[in-house]
Amino acid sequence: MNLKNLETCKGLIKGSYVDQAIQGTSQFNKLLETLLIHKKLPNIGYNDKIIELILNEISMMDSNNFIENIGVGEREGRIYSGLVEKRHYGFAHGIGRSGDITEQQPKAAGSSLIQKLTHSLVLDAMKLAGLEQSSLSNCLLLPMATGMTLTLTMLTLKSQQSQSNKRYVLWPRIDQKSCLKSIITAGLIPIVIPNILEGDMIRTDLNILEEKIKELGVDNILCVFSTTSCFAPRVPDKIIEISEICKRYNIGHIINNAYGLQCSKILNNISQACKLGRVDAFIQSTDKNFMVPVGGAIISGPNKEFIDQIARNYPGRANSSPILDVFITLLSMGKQGWLDLLKERKELLIYFNEKLSTLASQFNERLLNTINENKISFALTLSSKILNNTTQDKEITTIGDFKNSFSFSMIGSKLFSRSCSGSRVIDLETNKKAIIGGIEFNNYGSHIENYSTSYLTVACAIGITKIEIDTFIQRLSKLFKQQK
Ligand SMILES: *Cc1c(COP(=O)(O)O)cnc(C)c1O
């Protein structure tokens, strides 16, 4: 209620009571004012009721919610279902106009405000997570997952006039299909840069990368596509060195930072890469970093003009709910909640590492030594002993039977059937060839041709709890006991 209406209430109820109520409601207005002025995460997250009040107030600013509005256009934000209306807090106009996804909508001041505020909140969250200001010229939250957003980013790079003949994308191998598809769907040609081994770790081969640049010629190369977040034993690409190479040869550099916002080491490296070399953009998923449903990705980078160009290249309007999800979530977490989540993950990483090492040694397996470089994912060896021992107490009738009954991948499916999701088994006993986007890969899934052992991967991702880790270790241990 505004002040005038509150004063009018004095004709209905005691003035002193109304004065108290004015104090109460002004506390809410103060919160809103702080948010509008500072555009930063609130120190302590807001409760759901306050967030809903904010959403309802802002939603009233969109024309489809004006009490006296009559819509005579072809897009009036009409919502048939009350459930759908509720699910979106009455926001129906989406974001952007046909010329620019960040352009403000005359019919939807509220939606435009949410988009603007969310971009500021995301920038604040990224800074709090450890990125330096100089690498965060701006950000763009799009309602597409990471793969599609990578495609749009590469297409924008290509659309810049001088880049138009450049078709090659140098891509240090990462066995994640959306990465490769994002290049192919952009109509570009991926050049696989095979990785090298360094101890247990699978790493970027900078020599081959540079050789390929010379071989293909800088005039034909659009960019290097590097990746920071990946399953162990692959570790994040050497993005600082890559950015320096890209600067030296004047070729683009796009970093796939899918779930890297939760890891300060990765963010440090991105900041350094932006400072020392060339980074055109880094892209991260909203669901993997901010605990919202799948549907959004964030583009950021040191060059504001490039980010703005991507916004201008986006054809048409877009759905705003992935933005609303992030807006709600960041208001709900607040600065403290976000920092606590990041800190807890860091602490649990050490805990998970210890637990897995102990479990590994109990069963004569080994936790692969990748923790210094990969601070999100772990890999635990699966030795053939597990298979040999199980074959002893089972009768084998056919070779097919043998293969099906005792492949390591059973461990993955058994874990899944015991309600443990997310672990992956890489079985190198059976060399899996895969053709993706017309390119053949040996041992697809393992990021390299011939790794020395089969293994199981798990991740210590944001939001995981100690209880989940303990329960997982119990279940895995039980499974190994049955196997060995
Ligand atoms: C999740 C992920 C992607 C993108 O997948 P989307 O489904 O498009 O979000 C790309 N690369 C890696 C390493 C990922 O983990």
From TrEMBL:
GO annotation terms (biological process): conversion of seryl-tRNAsec to selenocys-tRNAsec; selenocysteine incorporation
Primary location recorded for the protein, binned into one broad class: cytoplasm
Q: Where is this site: May act as a substrate filter by repelling compounds with a negatively charged alpha-carboxylate?
A: E74
Q: Where in the cell is it found?
A: Cytoplasm
Essential cofactor(s): pyridoxal 5'-phosphate
Q: Which SUPFAM superfamilies match?
A: PLP-dependent transferases
Record field: catalytic activity:
O-phospho-L-seryl-tRNA(Sec) + selenophosphate + H2O = L-selenocysteinyl-tRNA(Sec) + 2 phosphate
The Swiss-Prot or TrEMBL record annotates one GO molecular function as:
tRNA binding
Give the matching Pfam families.
Answer: SepSecS (PF05889)
Task: Tell me which residues bind substrate.
Answer: R97, S98, Q105, R317
Q: Which residues bind pyridoxal 5'-phosphate?
A: R75
EC main class here is transferase
Top-level taxon of the source organism: Eukaryota
Cellular compartments per GO CC: cytoplasm
Recorded hits in PANTHER family, A to Z, give: O-PHOSPHOSERYL-TRNA(SEC) SELENIUM TRANSFERASE (PTHR12944:SF2), SOLUBLE LIVER ANTIGEN/LIVER PANCREAS ANTIGEN (PTHR12944)
Protein name from the UniProt record: O-phosphoseryl-tRNA(Sec) selenium transferase
- Organism equals Dictyostelium firmibasis
